[in-house]
Amino acid sequence: MDKPVRKHLNRVALAQCGAVLLFAVIGATAHAGMFDDDEARKQIAGERKRIDDVKAQQQATDARLDKIEEAFKSQALLDLFTQIESLKVEMNKLRGQIEVLNNNVENTSKRQRDMYLDLDTRMRRFEQQGGPAPASDAPAPPVTQGSAPAGAPGAASAAAPATAVTGAPADSAGETRAYEAAQGLRRAGNYQGAIVAFQNFIKQYPKSNLAPRAQYWIGDSYFNLRDYKLAIGSQQTLLKTYPDSPTAPDAMLNIASSQIEMGEATGGRKTLEELVAKYPVSEAAEKAKRRIATPGAVGPAPAAAPGSKP
What we know:
Elements: H1 3-130, E1 142-143, E2 162-163, H2 172-187, H3 191-204, H4 211-224, H5 228-241, H6 248-261, H7 265-278, H8 283-293
Antiparallel strand pairs: 1-2
Helix pairs in contact: 2-3, 3-4, 4-5, 4-6, 5-6, 6-7, 6-8, 7-8
């Protein structure tokens, strides 16, 4: 083979080798590019998956928080409902207690009215038996312990007999009508009207045997109006104006009741003790003894002086 042909063949072989090498390099480069693209896709897919997982976790967390909030709301409503029901039960109990107390107050008021009516009836019977005093300057004969019926509230003690109030001639029918009219107002519960009526009665019939009783009912009416200061003042006026009246023990009892209602239990106890000491055989004194003996009804007994007898 001649030399030129050999050179040509060498050149062709070299060209073929170069082409093979070129194709190999291009193939390798293309394979590397394809590998990098797949990796990127995989990474992107992985990131997307992680994002989706985070979103799913976030949604699950939100759902749990919503459930917890609903549970809290339901619990708060349940607690509020429970409290409301408890308050309803307490209100029902209080209503029942109020009804019981109102019933007790009504019964007590009725007993008190009955007691006053009975007291007034017996006192008027006693006063009417005594009759009007003669119109003279001479003092009336003393009323002894036997002058009043047994158990009369104003019976005087044997040690200090009371004297009857001197009366002046008056229209007995008009006097009785005026007194009964005032009593009718008091019995009807019109205590303010009764006060005015009894005051007018005393002004019109100042010497009447019923004047002390009218003065007593003025104080009693103030007591029923819960004006305890005026009740005490009215009864003190009776004691000062009619000191020997059979109504005096009842006036002292009303004063003691007013003091106790005002929270002056110690003063009330002292008045009750003075009542017992001054009018020991009166019905008012018996009531005073019962109140003194009732625990908690009046203030504590004063401490005994050294060397005194119990």
